[in-house]
Amino acid sequence: MSDPxxxxxxxxxxxxxxxxxxxxSLPETADPGLVLxxxxxxEGAGPSDxxxxxxPRYGDALxxxxxxxxxxxxxxxxxxxxxxxxxxxxxxxxxYAALLGRLHPDAMRPGSQFGARGIAPGAHVHxxxxxxxxxTVDPGAVVGPGAEVGAGTVIGPNAVVGPGVRVGRDCAxxxxxxxxxxxxxxxxxxHPGARxxxxxFGFAMxxxxxxxxxxxxxxxxxxxxxGANTTIDRGASRDTVIGEGTKxxxxxxxxxxxxxxxxxxxxxxxxxxxxxxLEDYVVLGGQVGVVGHVRIGxxxxxxxxxxVNGNVPPGSRWGGTxxxxxxxxxxxxxxxARLAERTAKDEV
Length: 348
Hints:
β37 and β38 (324-325) form a beta hairpin. The relative contact order is 0.06. It is built from 4 helices and 38 strands. The chain has a domain at 13-107: MurE/MurF, N-terminal domain (Udp-n-acetylmuramoylalanyl-d-glutamate--2,6- Diaminopimelate Ligase, Chain: A, domain 1, 3-Layer(aba) Sandwich). By secondary structure, it is an alpha/beta fold. The strands form 6 sheets. Strands 9-12-15-18-23-26-29-32-35-37-38 form an 11-stranded mixed β-sheet. The mean pLDDT is 95.
């Protein structure tokens, strides 16, 4: 079996260009014309590779690295070996991410899985759909009547863009995903298998459960990323909204009427019940559950596996089940641990 490399650098980066992008000066002995052709971990990097380090666990690996250039924070700069050019920056990981995107632009968002340009054979685009120039539609994809798709967007194989859906420019709609009753902004990435705009879970309960028609939409603003197999239900009577720049991991459930602010981070396994509001810059750790009709304030952070059943103040850090301020939660855990230890000693 062959051993393919899926991401190869499109072009190298000179040391001078790297320093300019990082906003730092080169050491006097460094050659600004030196070209790096790849990026790698500090353990695996070679003389033509860029690496970074900002975690004390990798101090020994940093001291032994063979990387051509290493981005480091000031506290670790003294451990960079003599054969490696040290570029000292405040946030090595962010600078590394930006440079990695320049080396591997094709890894920034999914492209055509068929290597196609334009409408591939086997794609189904309704005559009443409107596609700007530069749209790619892979085999098996469906674009429904009245749908509009902006320039530079890629619709993956077997994806469905439903009737009247709007998709902005430079988006990537992953294989097998479905969009219905939705307005999608620019530069949005929807990974394979995601479902956006289907029915919310709404029933009038009784001896028989009467279905409540879900007549709202989903609005996804610019620069949002939606992970694989994530579901975002359309609103019941108002819109479900995902704010600009928000990043949603795989396997997340977002119910009807939820409003998520700008630049939130929602990690895998989260479930958000209907009509809940997340203000800007909220972070939900993995497997957090949020009940309906609550508000999580701007910049709040919720620890993984917590259960939120009430409003959370802005800027706070909560955890536990039910979730509470982390200091209270830690005190409870410590008290329980001491009680259990004391009980175990009494039983001996």
